Amino acid sequence: MIAYFDNSTTSFPKPQEVITAISDLLTNYNASPGRSGHQFSVRAAREVFDTREIIAQLFNAPSSDKVIFAANATHALNLAFKGLLKKGDHVIISKMEHNSVLRPLRHLEEQGLIEISLVNCSVEGQINIDELKKSFKPNTKLVATLHGSNVAGTLFPVKEIGEICKRNNVLYLVDAAQSAGFTPIDMQNDNIDLLVFTGHKKMLGPTGIGGLVINGDIKINTTIHGGTGSRSENDLHPDFYPDCLEAGTINTTGIIGLKAGIEYLLKNGIENLKEYQLNLTRFFINQLKGIEDVILYGAVANTDRLPLVTMNIKNIVPSDLAFLLDHDYNIMVRAGLHCSPLAHKTIGTFPQGAVRFGIGCFNTEEEIKYAINALKEIIFKHK
Questions:
Q1: pLDDT exceeds cutoff 90 at 243
Q2: In this predicted structure, what is the pLDDT of residue 226?
Q3: Which of 207, 252, 266, 344 could anchor a disulfide with 350, C-beta 3.0 to 4.6 Å?
Q4: Pairing assessment for the beta strands 114-119 and 89-94 based on DSSP bridges
């Protein structure tokens, strides 16, 4: 058996609909959207527009022209941070954040532009709301948090955080890299001003596509200038969305694949797929609890959480365990710090990290049982 449990990094396999949509583009009308006026270009542009529309509907964003495509969540976060923050601004983040949030903010901090406050989190990975409330300053411009932790599996109370930000007249950015496509997100209901997503995880699209969704009249200045296919007679970059943040030819292939992935989610029901993945996650956690020498981390099984399991085995280095699972059992997982050292410090697994099983909508209970038996055998061999 081959069991892929690295869906928190990149989902696999992709729905056949995604493969078909990409193949159709590359075979039948692969032209640059928004550039030429011929039928292939017009068709590609229509598909891109329709994808913006479906993303705006998915997240209940007010306008599809404020759906900005990027290479991934990291790219989108950089667009937001570097285009929004100014000298003297204060930013609040949590101690569960991914390096995609931490590093660009640290870069701005090192340049002497901004100040950062980090809010503590519990060992289960949940943000300390009381401490968050006390972190606001007169110059606080932005609160940026993840929605779901790629390490602990915890889901943050984004609606509550959004309400706190609104009361303080501060913008709220949500990093939904792990949650978009897995759990419903409503930017209006949850008071989310800026939402960052990536297409290759729970949205079931290909790699190389992600984006930023802007809620309301928020001005983000671009750091990249060039061709947009619009206002070509002007030597100044366009100042309207989405063109102002999308210089150069966009990733039409990724966008088409992402659209097909979202359509698959909507067809099968996000809530239905979520419950399926959570049932597998709960079963896996409950089985692991009965195995001696297994150490579990993060959110408990019966909470609303992400479908991932972070664990270690006593006296086995995480990277060694991942190698044994792959080499001896064809079980693919991710070991280490998962680009989230703050999170691993919070849950107590720094610097060695941990082994993460990322469960997707195409995993099966049979694969979970196979993984459990493999872990039991590995533990037995190392006694």
A1: no
A2: 86
A3: 344
A4: parallel
- The token pair that represents 178 in the structure block: 């792990």
**Interatomic CA distance for residues 189 and 54, integer angstroms:** 18
CA 146 from centre of chain: 8
Do residues 81 and 286 make contact, with C-beta atoms less than 8 angstroms apart?
Answer: no
Relative to beta strand 334-336, strand 354-358 is: antiparallel
- CB 165, CB 143: distance < 8 Å: yes
Q: Is 92 helix (H, G, I), strand (E, B) or coil?
A: strand
Does residue 62 have a cis bond before it (omega within 30 degrees)?
no
Give the number of other Cβ atoms within 10 Å of residue 292's Cβ.
9
Length of the chain: 383
What is the model's pLDDT at position 223? 86
For residue 321, give every residue at least 6 positions away whose Cβ sits within 8 Å of its Cβ, in sequence order, or none. 312, 313, 335, 355, 378
* CB-neighbour burial class of residue 165 (10 A; exposed 0-12, middle 13-18, buried 19+): buried
Strand, helix or coil at 111?
coil
Q: How many CB atoms lie within 10 A of CB 49?
A: 16
All domains in the chain, ordered by first residue: 3-12+269-381 (3.90.1150.10), 16-267 (3.40.640.10)
274 has a pLDDT exceeding 80: yes
Tens of pLDDT, residue by residue over 109-126, are: 999 999 999 999 999 999
Look-up: residue for tokens 């290909």? 206
**52-67: buried (b, 16+ CB within 10 Å) or exposed (e) per residue?**
bbbbbebbbbeebbbb
Whether the pLDDT of residue 202 is over 90: the answer is: yes
Q: Which amino acid is at 257?
A: G
- The tens digit of pLDDT for each residue in 24-61 reads 999 999 999 989 999 999 999 999 999 999 999 999 99
- Cα-based torsion angle of the residue sequence 257, 260, 266, 269 in order, rounded to the nearest 10 degrees: -80
* Radius of gyration from C-alpha coordinates of the chain: 21
Q: Measure CA of the first residue to CA of the last residue in the chain; give whole Å.
A: 25
